[in-house]
Amino acid sequence: MVISYLFQLLVQGFIMSSNIAPREFAAIDLGSNSFHMIVARIVNGSIQVLSRLKRRVRLADGLDENLVLSQDAIDRGIACLALFAKRLEGFSAENVKVVGTYTLRRAINNQAFLEQAKAVFPYPISIISGQQEARLIYSGVSHTQPETGRKLVVDIGGGSTEMTIGDDFTPIRAESRHMGCVSFAKRFFPQGELTIERFDSAYQLAMEKIEDLMWEYKELGWDYALGSSGTIKTVHQVLIANGYRDGLITESRLQKIIDICLEFKSLNEIKLRGLLDERADVLVPGLAILLALFHTFRIDVLRYSNGALREGVMYGLEKSFQVGDIRQRTAEALAEQFALDKQQAKRVEHTALILFDQIKTWKNRRQVQDLRSMLKWASLLHEIGIVVNHNNVHRHSAYLIANRDLPGFDFEQQTLLSVLMRYHLKGFKRSDIRSINRYQCRDVLTLVRVFRLAVLLNRSRQATVVPKQLNLVIENNALATYL
User: Fold this and answer.
1) Smallest Cα–Cα separation from 418: which of 465, 387, 377?
2) Cβ atoms 384, 348 nearer than 8 A
3) What is the pLDDT along the chain (483 residues), one digit of tens a residue?
4) What is the three-class DSSP state of 225?
5) Dihedral of CA 149/150/156/159: which sign?
6) Which of 110, 154, 232, 420 is the one with CA 20 to 30 A from 468?
7) What is the rounded distance in angstroms from the CA atom of residue 179 to the CA atom of residue 283?
8) 2-128 and 145-305: same fold?
């Protein structure tokens, strides 16, 4: 019973290796469709999310053609802020950052909203520009995704769409346009009426709004295209639910979803596996904008990012998160939090990398550096499960890694890390190792074998046992070491 309770605490991230109370921060995004709040704390140099809260307020629904925000919409927003305020009791103002986006930017009576908010919400609200919003979204994505180099980051919100190109953590060009899934739903699909003609009209306007960016963005170029927030998250989830396990968005996959949606006569009637009922009435308007983004910027593949505006606001609150490999920071923070034996981890890592560097038969040569990094982090964290129970430590480690929020690691990388934890001890069958979308089955199997050897060779936990010279031989699909 005690161990079970301890295990639950560990999964929730409440056991700390330091006696110093960590700082807690809150970031709130007052979006045109939903209000989002994220509460987190700084643990050994890494952000650890404690809770997320989201409420759909449809603020943009209350913005009329004269840019006046209705009292009903204001009331919905104030009610949500009152709820957030209860969660934030005891927080100092310096640790809470609240930003208002498109609808509050555009509303000529936004001061009425801010005045009424003061009665229930004791924290200042900043209404930010479209470019500021784009930069913060870029920051949120950059701090939660592993991709390095030049990135295109797009975000389709309720009232606006942001598009940013940048290098690593630094945005180069950030733009925002007045087009969102809620505002387009209101303009092109009144009462939810759905026709091909209405979809085409929405698509054409989206194209017109971003055509001036086409050549400059093409000239800047990018290595990866990433997307965040509601519409893109919904498309990602629909793809996974319909058999596309990688969740990657391509034009052909996007067009299939659009074609299915256009078979319905009303937005509210749309039924798709993976589509939440609350997103049905804004999906098609968002798809029209997303298709325009694909065509204008010639996007081949768009990968969903869980990071967005609120994460960008959060990282802006803590200035130490501006450089470095996010995954390394995450792994080191976990090692500190769970007081892992770093000397043993270094021994395992040293041996594992000596063996790894002798292998020349990787099926996907472009992933060699990524696989090598995964081996390093597995070496650092493979004993994390020991704080639950020494028995079946490999199972406990795998479970903890698979079920934690690991900033910087995408789903496939987190899965691979968990697989390395799961099979570094005890027996396993080759059939247990399968491809993990991005990673070939043969490469995963080889990595598991290398890691098992490294752990085995260091089981005495003494630096002098493993010789400096290790030769790896591959015979009949098996790995062997000669000392």
Assistant:
1) 377
2) no
3) 444 433 444 444 444 444 445 678 899 999 998 999 999 887 765 678 899 999 999 999 999 999 999 999 999 999 999 999 999 999 988 889 999 999 999 999 998 999 999 999 999 898 888 988 999 999 989 888 888 889 999 999 999 999 999 998 889 999 999 999 999 999 999 999 999 999 999 999 999 999 999 999 999 999 999 999 889 999 999 999 999 989 999 999 999 999 999 999 999 999 999 999 989 999 999 999 999 999 999 999 999 998 888 888 887 776 555 545 678 888 888 888 888 888 988 999 998 898 888 888 777 777 888 899 899 999 999 899 888 888 888 889 889 988 887 877 777 788 889 989 998 888 776 766 766 666 888 888 888 888 998 888 888 877 655 555 666 666 555 555 544
4) strand
5) positive
6) 420
7) 14
8) yes
Please choose, from the candidates 40, 115, 122, the residue with its C-alpha nearest in 3D space to the C-alpha of residue 313. 40
Tell me the three state secondary structure of residue 176.
strand
DSSP-assigned beta bridge partners for residue 125:
98
Residues in the chain: 483
> What is the domain partition of the chain in residue ranges?
2-128, 145-305, 338-482
- Report the distance separating Cα 323 and Cα 36, nearest Å: 26
Angstrom distance (rounded) from CA 245 to CA 434? 13
Q: Which amino acid is located at 276 in the chain? A: L
Alpha helices, H only, 262-338:
280-297, 309-317, 326-337
Q: Which residue shows structure tokens 């995004």?
A: 29
Exposure string of 463-479, with b = 16+ CB inside 10 Å and e = fewer, is eeebeeebebeeeeeeb
> Domain 338-482's class?
mainly alpha
Which amino acid does the sequence have at 326?
I
Extract the tokens encoding 185: 């739903």
Nearest to 133 by CA among 103, 106, 101: 101
Domain 2-128 has CATH 1.10.10.10: no
Q: Is the pTM of this model over 0.90?
A: no
For 131, the enclosing helix (H) or strand (E) is helix 130-142
For 357-440, where are the alpha helices, taking DSSP H only? 368-381, 393-402, 411-422
